[in-house]
Design goal:
Strand order of the largest sheet: 3-2-1-4-5-6
Number of domains: 1
Order of helices and strands: HEHEHEHHHHEHEE
CATH class: Alpha Beta
Radius of gyration: 19 Å
Structural class: alpha/beta
Largest sheet: 6 strands, mixed
CATH architecture: 3-Layer(aba) Sandwich
Amino acid sequence: MKKLKNIALLDEMKQNEFFDIKPLKDWGILFFPISMSNITTKQSVKNCLEWISFFGDKKAGEPKIGLNLVYCDFLYLNSEDKATFLKEKFMNAMVNHKNGLKNAIHKNRKSLQIQHAFHFETWGNLYLEIKGDFNVYFEKIKDFYKKDKTFQKYIQEDIKFYNRKLDKNQLNFFLEEHLMIYLVLNNLVNFRNEYIQGREKWILLCYPGIPPKAQVYLFQKNPFNLKTENPFLGQYNLLNKKFYDFKNINLENWNYE
């Protein structure tokens, strides 16, 4: 009996251990979602360039990698702020960030040789690239939230962890964010990339931080019964250089570490 308990404990420890990834091979896309709240800080041009250079130096096993950088402007319209205010704020931030990063990539063209491997787009573009109807998916995820008590529980825990207030806008923000990532990593979004041209065998979500519990749970529960050959159903933390494999996270014993 004691031996079985020890084995179970070891299994739990393995579940919540995270490691770096091996050099990337075959055609694939790095998915960099840019949070509008982080665009001049945590995800500044300087930091993004450092991460891009890191992948080029350490993780490019083959010259078959594209990078799709997505500005999450429409996601942040889940807000009470005036549309005119948000439009001006986001437009200036996105244009400045894109121009700054494109210039930085060009200046480093000796190391970042494949210039057309970098594609810039906005969250709104993704709505149109969904295989199916995003509105239908969104209604389904809201219905799933209403019925699944565990999903509700993890939303609540995320709200507390990120110091947010659970109102309609914040709930829709989380549900839309989790849904889009769920669809992207399950290959239900057509990423446009001039270099890759639809040949990707994998998509790797890259973000400076850890995933929310509700997002992990959505992948584990898989309410839409999606199937994919993408090996990276998780999130690569750009800060600690570890991959959080969603299937290996024990949410009951994991404390956002």
